[in-house]
Amino acid sequence: MRNLVRANATETWLILVTLVLCLFLSLATEQFFSLVNFTDLLNTSAVNLIFAMGLVVVLIAGGIDISFAVAASVVQYVTALALMSLGGGNWALGFIVAGLCGIALGAVNAALIHHFRIISIVVTIATFNAFFGLLMFFTRGVSIYNLPDWWSDRIILWEHETAGGAWAELTLPVLVMSICVFLTWLLIGHSSTGRQLYAYGDNPEAARRVGINEAAMQYIAFGWLGLMLGIAGLMQVNYAQEVVPNALFGRELDVLAAVVLGGARLGGGRGTVLGCVLGVLLIAITENGLNLLGVSPYAFKMVVGAIILVAITLSNISLETLVRRRV
Question: Exposed/middle/buried for 83, CB within 10 Å: 0-12, 13-18, 19+?
Fold first, then answer.
């Protein structure tokens, strides 16, 4: 009950802060409070929101992963090469290949963490470098532009021409993101597996004593993140219309900051889908506002760094505690 109250308080504060920020930006810039800017925010935030839906499950289970963005880049290349070898494929095959590749990479992290008893942050630092190094070695940093039409074509779900002649539109990644948000909400909020993930993340030893399978929790959490990163990689290619090896490099810190800001605790046992959505949107609105105000993009990185520092401090969890969990 105490965790629920804290989560609701976090979400309330995020809503208030977001509203105040939106009010300020609406007064400070002419472009912010417009339908075109709103739809652009949703389109550009869709991939990060899909990432966040996977990362929050890992954090709830008491883990942490900083390799997911690089793993998504690996999935993009593997999926592109696999589909081209199969004659181009289609959306159904694309989701299957990307999802399975992502789950496989997530299972690698889960296996290393569980079977070798290594803390998750150490494992994912290692796999972050391994995945990125292998990707750059085999691809030589070369991008793929010759993609199947179904994958590269921009799919517009809704569009509206404003009085000024600009077009506001929502694209396919927004729909896919909404489905991922709903499925994650079902997993962690309305299933016995979700309750076990919370219990295991909050107190692993007590969870073991009541019969919760530790290996299952690790594989489910990192497997779900793997599925989400596979889908996110697929959507990033549809949005950018190309496969670039380092296009997602650096996203991990932005998403981690957003998820922790949304109330997920480093150390496990706490986190909500709504909090993640609010955290991602707050950071996206902050970046968008800084751009509209003409502030250097480096300032945004400083903001993200400050958010991570404050969020970790407020989460009341130390590295020593994280290490002790694996002993």
Answer: buried
Which of 2-11, 34-43, 209-218, 283-292 is the least confident region? Answer: 2-11
167, β-bridge pairs: 161
Instruction: Name the token pair of 102.
Output: 């992502």
Q: Which helix (H) or strand (E) holds 68?
A: helix 68-85
Question: Do the Cβ atoms of 60 and 188 come closer than 8 Å?
Answer: yes
Which sign, positive or negative, has the C-alpha torsion 182, 184, 188, 194?
positive
Can you tell me the distance from the alpha carbon of 61 to that of 274, in angstroms, rounded to the nearest whole number? 17
7, 111, 167, 191, 298 from 269: Cα distances, Å: 11, 21, 43, 15, 33
* N residues, the chain: 327
pLDDT tens for residues 12-54? 888 998 999 999 999 999 899 999 999 999 999 999 999 999 9
What is the rounded end-to-end Cα distance, in angstroms, of the chain?
28
- d(C-alpha 50, C-alpha 121), whole Å: 21
Question: What residue type is assigned to position 137 of the chain?
Answer: F
With vertex at residue 173, the alpha carbon angle to CA 172 and CA 179, rounded to the nearest 5 degrees, is: 95
| Interacting residues of 155 by C-beta distance below 8 A, sequence separation 6+ | 171, 172, 238
The one-character DSSP state at 64 is: -
What's the CA gap between 11 and 15, in Å, rounded?
6
Measure CA 289 to chain center. Answer: 21
On whether the CB atoms of residues 95 and 231 are closer than 8 A, the answer is yes
3-state secondary structure at position 99: helix
Q: What's the longest Cα–Cα distance across the chain?
A: 64
Hey, what are 56's tokens? 């929050």
